[in-house]
């Protein structure tokens, strides 16, 4: 990261940046808006820097996501001290200038602004496809991801079927008439 293009993204709205790159308004409304809405609960009028993350697709790691941490530790060539923390205390150490070291400027205890909450709920069960406004039968409903651009009248931002990390040969997603795991993004905790 860095350079002039990075600085431009940090100081420009995503919509403006993508239109400047030649993307159409239709593409923004139908492809990018659902991603920014699901991830951030906002429209395409967010910081262009956010797009760097929004376009990424989080993928499961073979053997478990904890391998990311062990891999980073291994490649950093640092040593992990396997110990349990039983207490902590503030210890001020003298800096090179002879004064006590601290954060400058100090880290604020409260961050200004309004923040958006996204709740992730994992549910094992059957999907009620009529909630999605379709008359298709659950046995033939094959959509695995539903992204929204606006939650007016909806309690969810997105719905995704969860597939196994190891996809065996010949695997196909089971129809929604079979029980499976769904990931639901919502602005508030869901009721039973």
What does this structure look like?
The structure is a single chain. With 192 residues, the chain is α+β, with helices and mostly antiparallel strands. Among the domains are: 3-54, no CATH class; 119-186, no CATH class. It is 24% helix and 11% strand. It is built from five helices and four strands; from the N terminus they run H-H-H-H-H-E-E-E-E. Strands 1-4-3-2 form a four-stranded antiparallel β-sheet. The longest helix is centred in the first third of the chain and has 16 residues, at 25-40. The chain is extended and about 70 Å long. 10% of the residues are buried.
Order of helices and strands: HHHHHEEEE
Beta-strand content? 5-15%
Q: What is the radius of gyration computed over CA atoms, rounded to a whole number of angstroms?
A: 23 Å
What is the count of helical runs?
Answer: 5
Unreliable segments (pLDDT under 50, ≥5 consecutive)? none
Q: State the separation between the terminal residues, measured CA to CA.
A: 43 Å
Given the helix and strand composition, which structural class is it? alpha+beta
Share of helix, binned: 10-25%
Strand order of the largest sheet: 1-4-3-2
Q: Average pLDDT across residues?
A: 79
- Label the overall shape: extended
Biggest beta sheet summary: 4 strands, antiparallel
Number of strand segments: 4
């Amino acid at each position: 990261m860095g350079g002039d293009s990075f600085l431009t993204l940090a100081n420009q709205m995503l919509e403006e940046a993508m239109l400047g790159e030649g993307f159409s308004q239709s593409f923004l409304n139908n492809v990018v808006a659902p991603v920014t809405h699901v991830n951030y609960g906002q429209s395409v009028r967010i910081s262009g820097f956010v797009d760097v993350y929004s376009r990424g697709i989080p993928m499961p790691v073979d053997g478990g996501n904890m391998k990311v941490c062990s891999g980073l530790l291994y490649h950093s060539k640092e040593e992990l001290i396997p110990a349990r923390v039983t207490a902590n205390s503030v210890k001020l150490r003298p800096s090179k200038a002879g004064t006590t070291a601290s954060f400058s400027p100090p880290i604020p205890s409260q961050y200004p602004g309004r923040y958006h909450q996204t709740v992730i709920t994992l549910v094992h069960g059957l999907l009620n496809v009529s909630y999605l406004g379709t008359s298709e039968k659950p046995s033939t409903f094959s959509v695995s991801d539903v992204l929204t651009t606006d939650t007016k009248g909806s309690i969810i931002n997105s719905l995704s079927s969860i597939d196994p990390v190891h996809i065996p040969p010949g695997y196909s997603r089971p129809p929604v008439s079979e029980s499976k795991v769904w990931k639901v993004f919502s602005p508030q905790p869901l009721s039973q």
